[in-house]
Design a protein that fits this description.
- The chain is mainly α.
- The protein is about 80% helix and about 0% strand.
- The protein has helices at about 5-35, 40-60, 65-70, 75-120.
- Helix 1 packs antiparallel against helix 2 (about 40-60) and helix 1 packs parallel to helix 4 (about 75-120).
């Protein structure tokens, strides 16, 4: 592959990654409204990781690929910057939303543990597991 083909391939992969990040943000917003996290978010994360590995493989297979960015024409360079900025913005928003959902889930779990402890402390022993008190001295 020549440098033009490599740069085109890298830009194509970055466009795919940007589309995935946009879908992740859309799903995160939907999850925020529904208060549930969809399994599809995790599948998209796996897709992004596969693309990332593909980009890394290109860089390994073609050592000149790391210098290709210097050979991008101005339009390709601008496109790449816009893609990277869009991906970063989507990731920040998605991370914030998912972080909030995870924090809410953590609070619910802690609350459930506290409620279970309080229930166990104040509820009488069950008939299946009776308590016996020894009155001998």
């Amino acid at each position: 592959m020549n440098k033009a083909e490599i740069s085109s391939k890298l830009l194509e992969e970055m466009k795919k990654m940007q589309q995935i990040s946009a879908r992740q943000l859309e799903l995160a917003r939907k999850a925020q409204a529904d208060h549930t996290l969809n399994e599809q978010v995790y599948r998209l994360m796996e897709e992004r990781e596969a693309i990332r590995r593909g980009i890394d493989q290109i860089k390994e297979d073609y050592p000149e690929a790391t210098a290709v960015m210097d050979f991008l024409n101005p339009e390709q360079g601008l496109t790449l910057r816009e893609l990277v900025n869009s991906i970063e913005a989507n990731d920040r928003q998605t991370g914030s939303i998912i972080g909030t959902l995870m924090k809410n889930l953590q609070n619910k779990i802690q609350s459930a543990h506290q409620n279970r402890k309080a229930f166990a402390a104040y509820s009488p022993p069950s008939l299946n597991n009776p308590w016996f008190f020894d009155k001998k001295k």
